[in-house]
């Protein structure tokens, strides 16, 4: 089996794993009443960009091989590194969901009895779910030996992050006030100790 095929298989398994992790939290979240909703057109653009870059475009590439002109030779070391990074992304993704519990939402929402979560991965970064998306995009870049499909995940993540994170932090400041400000002072956004 060639490295490019293994990379594609690992990517598909990673996406399936992502959905398996997310699905039960998505179902549970629907049962908790939303008290504040900050959905906006820019947030929808960010979510669609992330979905397109992390799933739709690379899925199309894996299924069809298009755009073939952007292919480059796959390397076993890159596939191994991509698998480790993607597995790390899934671990952070699951831990983030577990810590958030009933507070989780796919959009900018405050739920009934919403609590500020600062344990687990939230002890190091304020947005570990974005950290997981960044790691997924990076893993995808190593797993898929195609300049377009491989890099689409990082681009999709970046669009989501930059359209949404400031709004999310403003919403949390409005809801939790000084408690969230103190939390911001002791944590980084998405990369522990750096940013």
TrEMBL record:
GO terms for cellular component: membrane. It is found in: Membrane. One of its GO terms (molecular function) is protein C-terminal S-isoprenylcysteine carboxyl O-methyltransferase activity. InterPro entries: ICMT_MeTrfase, Isoprenylcys_mtase. Its main location: membrane. Keywords: Membrane, Transmembrane, Transmembrane helix. It is a multi-pass membrane protein. It comes from the Bacteria. This is Putative transmembrane protein. The lineage of its organism: Bacteria, Pseudomonadati, Pseudomonadota, Alphaproteobacteria, Hyphomicrobiales.
């Amino acid at each position: 089996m060639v490295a490019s095929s293994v990379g594609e298989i690992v990517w598909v398994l990673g996406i399936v794993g992502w959905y398996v992790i997310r699905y039960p939290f998505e179902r549970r979240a629907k049962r908790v009443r939303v008290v504040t909703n900050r959905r906006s057109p820019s947030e929808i653009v960010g979510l669609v960009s992330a979905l397109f870059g992390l799933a739709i475009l690379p899925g199309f590439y894996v299924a069809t091989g298009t755009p073939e002109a952007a292919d480059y030779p796959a390397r076993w070391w890159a596939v191994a590194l991509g698998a480790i990074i993607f597995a790390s992304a899934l671990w952070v993704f699951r831990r983030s969901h577990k810590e958030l519990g009933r507070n989780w939402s796919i959009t900018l929402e405050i739920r009934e009895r919403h609590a500020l979560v600062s344990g687990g991965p939230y002890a190091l970064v304020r947005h570990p779910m974005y950290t997981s998306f960044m790691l997924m995009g990076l893993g995808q870049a190593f797993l898929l030996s195609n300049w377009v499909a491989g890099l689409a995940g990082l681009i999709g993540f970046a669009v989501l992050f930059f359209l949404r994170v400031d709004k999310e932090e403003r919403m949390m400041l409005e809801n939790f006030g000084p408690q969230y400000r103190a939390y911001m002072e002791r944590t980084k956004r998405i990369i522990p100790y750096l940013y």
